[in-house]
Fold:
Amino acid sequence: MIDKHEVQTLCNRAWQWGRDMSGEEQRHDRWMIQREDFVKVASAFAELDPCHGMEIGWGLGGTHYVLSRVASRLFLTLELRRYLICAPEVSTDWHGRRCWTMPGVLNKTSAILFGQYSPSHTAVRETAKLLNGRSLDFLYIDGCHEASAVYSDMERFRQFVRVGGLIGLHDTYRIAGPKTVAGLIREGHWPEVKHLWTVDNNTLTQKVGVSKRTRQDRMYRADPTLVCRMIEMLRNGKPFSYARYNDGEWSAILGYHSNINADGHAYFPEMCKELTQTVLNPRPRPYYYGTLHGHIGVLAKVWCQEKGVDIPWVESNALVSLNHEGKMFPLVEALRKRRVLIVGPRHLRIERFPHYAFTPTAFVEVPERNCYKSLDEIQATVLRMVKTHKIEVVSFSAGMPTNILMYNLFPIIGQSVTMLDMGAVWDIYVGVKSRGLFRNGKYDWPKLIRRNCGIHYLNERSVKNGK
Structure:
């Protein structure tokens, strides 16, 4: 067992190396956990005299350096990125970026699972395989920092922590209490997770309740400024384009993917290259690029900086937020006054589209999966429909190829036609529950649809049937 003094020494060494690497003290302080907080967490772990420990998220390897010396037999790190950071001094190459890690970071207890996305079933399965029946004395969660993501990681991996073990947290967003949460949850207080301990005034005393509402709210919060701008442009007939880069698109660009995504769409190498080009050679305004926050959003931002890409990113889930918050009516009302072309799978065809929302002028059907194979045909059909029906707005629901379609079409019709990447937003309006937000029972969709369509009463059965 290592004592508190040894933990302090290890933390000081990791902290100083991280600060030296960042070159900017202010930037380092903004992204790194406060040293005093982590010393308390690592010390609490050390007091367990632990044999087995685990962390989610590698970062630069500083926490692995410390905690792999706290655990006496095995310390496992789960990391999203696929490159191996094992050089004793500096680096390996990742998309042209020098990937630095702390010298001597690996220990005899070290084990690393690279290319593992913590919310996936694969990550849980691979963790179980490596532990081989052994229980964790402690778990440190330092992956995506959204409160909902931290809660999800705890829910998935707490099964490996022994009774009496500890779960520690890095900083989390959008919960009450200090932003830097070096929290400790004593295993056994699940599932309510009412004992979320935070470091406050050098003591582990403050309790922050994580309610079910935290998980329901997730990371979806509309950017009111962006939404107002888009609605105003729609009302005034000023064309713009809004492309969204979420998990699937960034996984394709960064190379963090298997053969297919969660919806069964294949990651074709040519498609990944074309998606990359849409970011490396961005379209000018009024072409808006939306992206995610969270872990993959940070990685995307770093990738863009390394590639010299200067895009004024906006919130990618702005329209998704409007939909589940029941604030969609201004957009729906604006679309009612425009000639709209829907580009999407068969279930979004005109006759299925509910009359209480708006009536599309035309429809272009795309394959339910792998519509990248039909990209040229879809693009030609869209252009023909725009010309024939004098389309003013094109709503795309074509998966990852949507960004390629919009990128290619913008120079041709972008100055006269508004293009919106709507994703799966319209699915619930035609009775298709294609996303967890539609299926998990957290939201009263009949009521939300009534509000989004600006009507006071709508039979729930009619909403479910898409009539």
In short: The two ends are 66 Å apart (CA to CA). DSSP finds 18 helices and 17 strands in the chain. The chain has two domains: 4-214, 224-465.
